[in-house]
Amino acid sequence: MAASIISGRVVAKEVREEVAGEVEKFKKANGYPPGLAVIIVGDDPASRVYVSSKKRMCENLGIYSEEYAMPESTGQEELIETIEKLNKDEKIHGVLVQLPLPEHLDEGEVLESIDPRKDVDGFHPISVGNFVVGKEAFVPCTPLGIMRLIEKTGVEIKGKRAVVIGRSNIVGKPVAMLLLAQHATVTICHSRTQDLPGVCKEADILVAAVGRPEMVDATYIKPGAVVIDVGVNEVGKREDGKRILVGDVKFDEAKEIASYITPVPGGVGPMTIAMLMRSTMDAAWRAVRDKG
Ligand code: GUN
After folding, report:
1. pLDDT (tens digit, 9 = 90+) per residue, 231-249?
2. What was the pLDDT predicted at 35?
3. What is the mean pLDDT of residues 42-49?
4. Cis check: omega of the bond before 265, within 30 degrees of 0
5. Order of strands, edge to edge, in the sheet holding 35-41?
6. What burial class does residue 233 get, using C-beta atoms within 10 Å of its C-beta: 0-12 exposed, 13-18 middle, 19+ buried?
């Protein structure tokens, strides 16, 4: 039987509605909204699109937002000064620096200058460390979105074999830790893994985050597996100039074997910004709690 499709569009809408309700409650209780600051350096077109979507989503949900569009020529000190100002700003509960940064900037130092209490992206080493040892911390948004999608299937994670393809700090490593926290037995695969299809075929839950168009075919998939496709690969343009996107999974083959599968587009993609709104809301609640 063909797999059920997990719609990220539907689940992201649920998350947004949940956050919008909380924003109202927060405003009533505190007299001001949660606030997010987004910093972008340079004019990478894809990053610009992401940043405008974040801003629009804040407006739709009643979250206060500030955007700092800084020129390509911005220096390290100037960028860090901007972040430090936002760290102190009481209207701002979340600070996000859009990646990638221009080459001349030191990304590690920039991310470490964000106050971990406002680190809604979860990229600060303190956030990563706290998360790994099970303390309160922000967690990167795409992995949080992936977990929501898996939870939505109703499939129990506890005790299952989960395989993650990809070991990035933004997706692979954190999603593996989240699955582990839910008591899955987790394997992380990468470019040097031997017999990749064989390892993946043991997975009850398979998360593909490699960035290789349709690499994961039928030979990778265990019958009945939950398949989450994080890939967004441009493989050409349509006549109208629109990009043709495919995932890391050969969808048509995989859907005949899996029990649940995410499409591309419309699967993991819409979840990331929704979870950023969720984390900004959490940051605001925590700020109020910690103020006493
Ligand atoms: N660039 C691509 N994905 C992300 C993300 O999740 N956060 C930030 N800050 N930049 C990104």
Report:
1. 999 999 999 999 999 999 9
2. 98
3. 94
4. yes
5. 64-70, 35-41, 94-97
6. middle
Q: How many whole angstroms from 31 Cα to the centroid of ligand 1?
A: 30
Residue in 98, 173, 201, 204 annotated catalytic:
98
Nearest atom within ligand 1 for CA of residue 99: 10
Q: Is 54 assigned a catalytic role?
A: yes
User: 149, 11 in Cβ contact below 8 A?
Assistant: yes
% the chain with pLDDT above 90? 99
Distances (CA, A) of 288 to 69, 221, 254, 292: 28, 46, 46, 7
pLDDT at 292 > cutoff 90 = no
Pairing of β 161-165 and β 64-70: unpaired
As a whole number of angstroms, the distance between CA 96 and CA 221 comes to 36
Question: Is residue 98 annotated as part of the catalytic site, yes or no?
Answer: yes
Active site residue 106: no
Structure confidence by residue, pLDDT tens digits, 64-82: 999 999 999 999 999 999 9
Instruction: Encode pLDDT of 248-272 as tens digits.
Output: 999 999 999 999 999 999 999 999 9
Q: Which amino acid is at 148?
A: R
Half-sphere exposure of 222 (CA within 13 A, CB side): 18
> Is residue 77 exposed (0-12), middle (13-18) or buried (19+ Cβ within 10 Å)?
exposed
Q: What's the gap in Å between 44 CA and the centre of ligand 1?
A: 13
DSSP 101: P
Q: Which two tokens stand for residue 258?
A: 């899996």
For residue 157, what are its two tokens?
């994670």
Question: Which domains does the chain possess?
Answer: 32-127 (3.40.50.10860), 141-269 (3.40.50.720)
